[in-house]
Specification:
heterodimer, A: 322 residues, alpha+beta, 7-stranded antiparallel beta sheet, elongated, B: 128 residues, mainly alpha, 73% helix
Amino acid sequence: MLNKVHLRWILAGLLVYLSGCASNIRTMVDELDQEMTAVELTETPFYSQVTDQCGPSALAATLNVSGVNVEPETLKSQIYIPGREGSLQIELLAATRAYQRIPYRIDPDVTALLAELRGGRPVLVLQNLGRKFAPIWHYAVVVGYLPDRKQFILRSGDQQRHLVKAPQFIRTWQKAEYWGVVTLPPGELPASPDADKYVRSVAAIESVGDTISAAAGYEAATSRWPRNSLAWLGLGNSYYAQGDLDSAERSYSQLLTIEPNHAVALNNLSQVQADQGCFEEAAATLDTALVAAESHPATYVLIQKSRQEFDRQRSPAECDGS
Amino acid sequence: MFTYLSKRICVVAISICLVSLPLMQSANAAVISTETAIEITDRQDRIDHINLMLSADSVQDTLVRFGVDPAHASARVDALTDTELLTMEEQLEQLPAGGTGVVEVVGIVAIVLIVLELLNVTNFFSEF
């Protein structure tokens, strides 16, 4: 008898079967054949790790290189959770942001890894030194690669210059889903940046309230990708949060020259105009925003709220033209 | 005397804070944050992506054969929460990319049915 439970198990089994994907370690090793010149960031500091505290040691090294003066001991209290015998990736990212640095997750391949090294940036990586079903998580810093020996150079555990054969490193990295992060000073772009991923990394630091770093990050993004609407929106929002209405207005307007019907930009621009006392203009912009959002229910609801708020706050003050 | 004075100062300071707090919040209540803008875009992208997969003829045929109205399934997708959408998309992402072979079609249909079923949107499995 095929009952509901059985069918669920059959379908779940099918899912597991379908999701098993081919390993691409071989491809990565082949990619490394194209790397001819050795690279080693000898300046990267080394902190010998205390038991189970590879996270703080590795993060301190990458933060130091990005110009932040901090020791693992200080980071330990922020990221080390004794109960979990290690620090979670999310906390490493959060700690990075707390030091006004933008963490950027590199593309999951050796080409991206080497590009960062050649750009002078060590890469904080997560490795699984155990098995897939019995993981032993470990954080290390990749500082170099030797093509003639096919070896990566890591700051790892208690070894300042740990040499690992490429296939072995890639295997441990693969079992950690190729998690690798560079620590960027605001305004600096990674070696091979993906526009959307970079802008989202900046948005993350904006959302924790560091609008100064965020603005620098968005500025870099808008110079590199002048048509990236999210970067312009974030830039406007960061300036607005800092109380810089003129810069906020400029950013939103720039976005609207690229995408005249960007409902969120219109909504936010309208708020700037209202703050400047230009209520007629603000009301008109908000009306345009509502029309632009007609086919996007989620945005429409938000703009409708803005409209109600606007009507509630509206005072008879004249536009001062500023 | 000094304590009395500092107490008074404290009370006044706190009162000012409390009174001005709602004003400060309402000043930028209307700005849509970057985070929210990203969430809205992601949601729409997920819905579009899932609906695109559901729109393939072979998928529609299979859904019909299982007794599910494709339009109904699609409308239900719109009503999922962000987390539910994410779950469904993650499952779909794990399917072998490209092509609309039998394996992929069965995979897509299975995922859609399992997710909608687990969320009690359909009651497909309870008919067995």
